[in-house]
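[AMINO ACID CHAIN]
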Amino acid sequence: MQSIMWRGGRAAWACAAGAVACSGVLARAHPDLALELQRRDPQTGALRLTQERVDPATVGVVVIDMWNFHWCKTSTQRVAALVPRMNRVLAEARALGMRVFLCPTDVADNYVGTGLVEPVMMVTPLPLPQARTIACPPAPDGGGCTCGKERCLVNYGWDAMNPELVIGEHDLMPNDPERLYALCRARGITRLIYMGVHTQVCLLGKSVGLRRMLEAGFECILARDLTDAHGRYDPEHGVTPDGFTATVVAHFEKYLAPSINFAETLRRNGDWDDHWIVDPVRIAPWGTLRRPHLFEDPITVTLTIPWHPAATIHYTLDGSAPSLASAAYTKPFVVAATTRLRAIAYERGRVVSLPSAAFYAKLGPRPPLPDLYLSDLQPWRAVGPGHAIAFGEDRYSPDAQPAQRDHNNRGQSLRLRGQDYTKGLGVHAPNQLIYDLKPQYRRFVALAGVDEHLVDISNGSNLARYPSVVFKVFLDGREVSASPVMRLAADPWRFDVPLPPGSRRLSLVATDAGDGNREDLANWVNAGFVLQEPPK
C-alpha cells in the first residue's frame, strides 16, 4: 500500500488517521539500512568514512525551509531544483519506515487546519536536555544572493512550501524543538537526517535545526545531495553556488555532523532505480520568464549537474529545445543580449537530467529626463481595476485608486530598487492611461517597475512574492515597446520610444502579467515627453 500524497501548497487536508498516535506508512519488510557516513578531520579536512547499520524505524527525516520563494531568484530556482530528487528520496524513506517531518519554519502557521499541524498541537512538549556542547566556528556565508553582481534585495515573500514538494499522508510539521523532541521520543527515533535549505543558516540556525537537536543528544546527519547553502556566485574567481555549498557541507563534516548522499544510500540498499531522472541542470544566474534576470553589463553564466560528474550538458540560447546536436557546455560563457537559455544533460547518449530553462533581459540605455512630465498632464483616458461604467463614473476596486500623481497608488512616494522618485504616476494593474500627442512630442521616456513600499512592513512577509507587472506602450493602437515581467525590487525597465510625425495617441498599459493583480502596484517614474527642439 502506498501513502496518499498531496502537493506542497496550503490546501486544507486532514490526516486519514486523525491523530498523532496513528502508525506511520506501511513499511517494507526490509533489513537495516547501511549508511556510509562522511566526516572530515577538523584540522586537515581529510575525509573519514565510516559504515553503520541502522533500523529505519529509529530514523527521522527533517526537511527544513523548502519554501516556494526566496528574495534571490537564483536561490528560488535552486530550491526548486532539489524537489524532484527530494520527492523520490522521501517516498523511499517513508516506505522504509522513516518518519518525515516537514518544517517550513517561517510559514508553518499557514498550514493550520491540516493533518500536518493539528495532530502536532496535541502533543505535550518535552524540554530538551543539554546532552552535549557543540563548539563550531561560524560557517561561510555568501550573503543570501547567488545571482552574482546583480544582487537581489532582501524581502520575505515566501508563504508556503514549494508547490511541487510531495507531502505524505503521515508527515508531520513540528515548528518548535520541544514538540519535535516529544514526537521523536514517542516513536523511538534516535537519528535525524537533515535536508533542505539554506544549509548554514536554516538547517543550522532554526529552532528545529540540526544544531539544537544535536545538543539534545540525537545523532544527526546531513543529506549533502539535498541541501543548498546561503550561496555566493563569483565566476571571475571561480566561485559557483555548487562549489560554495560543498564548502559549507565540508564545514558541517568537520565540526558538526557527518553527511550522506541519500540517493546513493538508497541505491546501495536496492531502493533506487538508476533510470529515475531527478536532477535538472543548474544555472547561475537563474532568471525565468516569470522572474527575469535583468542586467546592464554582460553576465557570465555557469551550468552544472553536480551529481552526474560524467554527464555532458548541451544547451541553446535561442529558446529552442536542446539535443545532442546542440552546443556542449565546457566552461562558463558570456551573455550580452536578451536571451532564452535551455539546457539538458546526457551520459553515453542517454538523457540523465530534467530540462532546464533560464531567461535574461538586457536593460536598454537609461533614458533622459523628459521635458514635459506626464504627472503634469491630463490623460485622455484613465482606467484601472474595478468596474468600468460606460459614460459614467468608474468604480475602483477597494484596494485600488485612480492613477496618483507623483505618488504610488497608495499615496506613498514612488520607490523603485531602493530609490524614491519625485515625479511619476502610481497605478494599480491592470491600468491604462491614454494621452493625446502633440507635434512637438518627439519621444516618450520613462522608468517602470513594481513599487517597493510593500517591504516596509515585516520585509513584505508572505506578500512580496505576488507583485508581477508587464508594462506596455502602444502608439495609435499598435504595441511598440514592452517590458518583461517585472517583480519586486528589480531594476526599473527603461523606455525610450520615438514618436513619429503624425502620431495621435499614446497608450500606457500596466497588466497583471497573467497571474492576478494582488499587490500589483506599478510605477511609471520620470515619465513624459522629450520635446522637439525649436527651429533655430
